[in-house]
Design a protein that fits this description.
The protein is mostly helical. The protein contains 21 helices and 5 strands. Helix 6 runs antiparallel to helix 7, helix 12 packs antiparallel against helix 15 and helix 15 packs antiparallel against helix 18. The longest helix has 33 residues. 54% of the residues are buried.
């Protein structure tokens, strides 16, 4: 018994910065409450309760992040596992704004009352069980806590200061997405197939991430990013292994942003997933992954910049070329926007590689403008439907050819889509133009002139397939079998907010740019 006493006396209560964790705790707490709602609230009341709970949680977390912003500029919080600096809070702010818009789109069931999700995802596609679930008008509501869990993981991801916390946040972010991808109401087999592809390839990416982390731990003796960063210059004789370790660590992040050659999952998953989930993934995951990439590259990678820059420059070039030229031949609008997202990932990589004082803020602005427009675009896609010969409205009309004349059938939907496409193309007076301008300016300042020239050329080429869709919507005779259904209200609100933000970020970008100039990567 005497030998136990000294051990007990050494134990102490850990010092937890609860105020720094407040935004994350709000989201994860609401997700846990959402699970309890599924267990105890009557079926008919679950949907309104889940929608209200999710939206209130996200809005409350936004308020908490804004409240924390003024505090951490003067005194950032640096814990062994968690860093709260301007990069963390800017990334969390973007994730929460995108999550708010995405939840509105996810909640919408259109005027038909059908929604984007399967009545019972566990039903076998085409079975009598599925027919019965549809006939009973079942609507799954566990979608909302799953989204909140994923958002919680995204919020921790860029704030993690250790390899262990990074991996846990990566899995908390990813596992709900694997499930959500498989829940599409129509084309169920395609949805489930895309979920399997995403899961398997995601597991490979996680394995690369773990192996890179293991190598870094073996060479530095630490799992904390700040300690690894300090140890890197002291390692001699195994530089090649250090480069391999950092690259393998970043492979997991390059997979999440859809950078080539780790992009193969992107078009299939974007096409097969429920359209609201596609928009959520395309926008929010990129913010979380790129913010984490900034932290790792600017703390660890910059110590060996001259060795890594050629590798990541090659990845950026390949990403831009694949996203641009493969996108030219796409005939499905969701696959088209998937390749568009790949091209945009290449553009953002220029900002990461620039390694300027303003790089982090410029990347965050780009991701904000891209994310808002992306959620809005997929919200519009969810409302453009196909009608059969008997005028029965069925699934989404994702074939690009079926968008002919949409501008005449729904001026609001077409005009909104036009604004989003202009932003993707980087046309002035949209947020996309300012985003590209600040990232490319950082690229030139950082000596990445060749990459910037290629990015400008690729932007001009991608504009071709955006404007091909514009011509179809406004200058082509309408397709008789295409119908634009009315929103139940939630998607309409999301699209209106996305349009306003896209234009505001292009016309009045300075307040946001001024706020983001304070974004730096803390190395405690």
């Amino acid at each position: 018994m005497n030998s136990i006493v000294p051990l007990v006396q050494t134990l102490s209560t850990p010092d937890v910065e609860w105020t720094a964790l407040t935004p994350v705790l709000i989201i994860l707490g609401a997700a846990v409450v959402g699970v309890l709602v599924e267990a105890f609230v009557p079926h008919k009341a679950r949907r309104p309760v889940q929608i209200l709970l999710s939206i209130i949680a996200v809005l409350t977390a936004i308020v908490a992040v804004v409240a924390r912003w003024t505090s951490i500029i003067e005194l950032p919080v640096a814990l062994p596992e968690y860093i709260e600096d301007t990069l963390t809070l800017s990334a969390q702010s973007l994730i929460l704004v995108i999550a708010f818009l995405s939840l509105l789109v996810i909640a919408d069931r259109s005027e038909l009352g059908d929604g984007a999700f399967a009545a019972q995802p566990s039903d076998r596609p085409g079975s009598s069980d599925e027919d019965l679930s549809i006939a009973k008008n079942h609507q799954r509501t566990e979608i909302f806590p799953l989204v909140l869990f994923s958002v919680g993981g995204m919020m921790v991801f860029p704030a993690a200061n250790s390899l262990v916390a990074l991996f846990i946040a990566l899995e908390v972010m990813s596992l709900p997405l694997y499930i959500l991808v498989a829940t599409a109401r129509r084309r169920r087999q395609l949805s489930q197939e895309s979920a399997i592809k995403y899961f398997i390839l995601g597991a490979f990416a996680s394995a690369f991430f773990l192996m890179g982390g293991a190598l870094l731990y073996g060479m530095t003796g630490s799992v904390q990013l700040n300690e690894i960063s300090r140890a890197v210059p002291l390692i001699a004789g195994v530089d090649w292994m250090l480069i391999v370790a950092v690259f393998m660590l970043l492979v997991g992040l390059l997979f999440k942003v859809g950078a080539a050659p780790f992009h193969a999952w992107t078009p299939d998953v974007y096409q097969g997933a429920p359209t609201p989930i596609t928009g959520f993934m395309a926008a929010a995951v990129k913010v979380a992954a790129f913010a984490t990439m900034l932290r790792i590259y600017l703390t660890i990678g910059q110590r060996m910049e001259w060795d890594l820059i050629w590798i990541f420059a090659a990845v950026a070039v390949l990403t831009m070329l694949v996203g641009t030229f493969v996108g030219l031949v796409q005939k499905d609008i969701k696959r088209l926007l998937a390749y568009s997202s790949i091209a945009h990932a290449g553009f953002v990589l220029i900002g990461v590689l620039a390694s300027q004082a303003t790089s982090a803020g410029s990347v965050m602005f780009y991701l904000l403008s891209y994310g808002v427009a992306t959620v809005g675009a997929f919200a519009v896609i969810a409302l453009v439907r196909h009608a059969d010969e008997n005028a029965n409205i069925t699934g989404e009309a994702t074939e690009i050819a079926r968008w002919a004349g949409v501008g005449r059938k729904s001026p609001f939907a077409a005009a909104s889509m036009l604004i989003f496409l202009l932003s993707f193309a980087g046309i002035p007076l949209t947020g996309g133009f300012i985003g590209k301008f600040v990232v490319f300016a950082d690229g030139i300042a950082g000596g990445q002139i060749g990459l910037v020239v290629l990015a400008i050329i690729c932007s001009a080429v991608t504009a071709f397939y955006y404007f091909r869709l514009v011509v179809l919507m406004f200058f082509t005779e309408p397709d008789e079998n295409t119908v634009v259904v009315k929103s139940e209200g939630y998607s309409f609100i999301a699209v209106v907010i996305a349009v306003i933000l896209t234009v505001a970020l292009g016309v009045f970008p300075q307040p946001i740019l001024d706020a983001l100039t304070n974004v730096v990567v803390l190395l405690p």
